[in-house]
Amino acid sequence: MGPAEVPDEFVTPAVAGLTPYEPGKPVEEVQRELGLERVVKLASNEGPFPPFPAALAAIERATHELNRYPDGGAYRLRAALAERFDVAFEEVAVGAGADGIVDGVSQAFLDAGDEIVCGWPSFPSYVIDAAKLGATAVRVPLTDGRYDLDAILGAVTPRTKVVYVCNPNNPTGTMNTRAELDAYFERVPEHVLTVLDQAYFEYVDDADYPDGIEEYHRRGHRVLVVRTFSKIYGLAGLRVGWGVGSPGVVTAIGKVRRAFDLNAAAQAAAVASLDDRDEVARRARVNAEQRGRVVEILERHGLACVGPAVANFVYAESGDDDARPLFEALLREGVIVRPLAGFGAPGAIRVTVGSPEDNAFLDEALGRVRAAARG
Known about the structure:
The chain is α/β, with parallel strands linked by helices. It folds into two domains: 9-50 and 278-374, Aspartate Aminotransferase, domain 1, CATH 3.90.1150; 53-273, Type I PLP-dependent aspartate aminotransferase-like (Major domain) (Aspartate Aminotransferase, domain 2). 40% of the residues lie in helices and 16% in strands. The protein contains 14 helices and 13 strands. A seven-stranded mixed sheet has the order 2-8-7-6-5-3-4, sandwiched between helices. A four-stranded antiparallel sheet has the order 9-10-13-12, with helices on one face. The mean pLDDT is 94.
């Protein structure tokens, strides 16, 4: 006799209709399924570099106290971020990755019948987390692979509570300029909270790319600027996101965050990572060099890249309505990329910039896949 099941109507209508976020496949799973000796993961926009030495040392120290709960208020981390970015402690929110901040925004501010507006294709959590609360996600098509901020503003209604601006946008890797964001903030209605998602901030080297904390938060706009330690800092496995906004916004997010959402090792590693600016700059330089290499590889093998890409990944149209066969063919060669149906782009893949060795492996694998397709 099996367990007693709940009827379908027991699940809320909002959750019953959800398609959950699909994470990138882990290396170990692919090795186990396909019996491959070498697998390169270029699917989840992780950096190819490990945590900083100081972060590893902090994690080691933290392991000796793992019988204790972490600081539920993340005091040291919030204080360190407030000092580094010259904002008040009360203006710093934390969560389990940038995704945790998006979840907090949704829980704190959205109710059934409310609306959010975002570009599309873009980060699926904006849509999924709104739907969990019964809110409506209004998705505005990108223009030339970039957020169309004029169209975003045109989609705002009296029911709109939150507008997400993903900059650089995930999955296209493209950015909006300072002039475009300035014009947006001049026109966005006062009843809207803008979440400016800058998860890939440290990778961008473009004079026209704005610093959301300096240029919008500090100037008094109703904005929450979101960043993360998951990417260039190499802490994706520990899940540390943060944001800067008004004290009222931060307090509300804190009310819905789980009591011990950021574990002790994550908090210690994040604080330790803030001091190594030279290594951040070095990783950004290496990424920029290898990003150009990835674009060259993809285009040489017949894929159409959208750009210019400014983060640590490249978006490429496969040329077919469904990119999943390409994803599966590369998987059999030991390369994990990201098919993008869940992001709203079923004919595209997203390829994370890897190490030089990873990217060479991608080149060889894609060559074999293309040759097999030609017969």
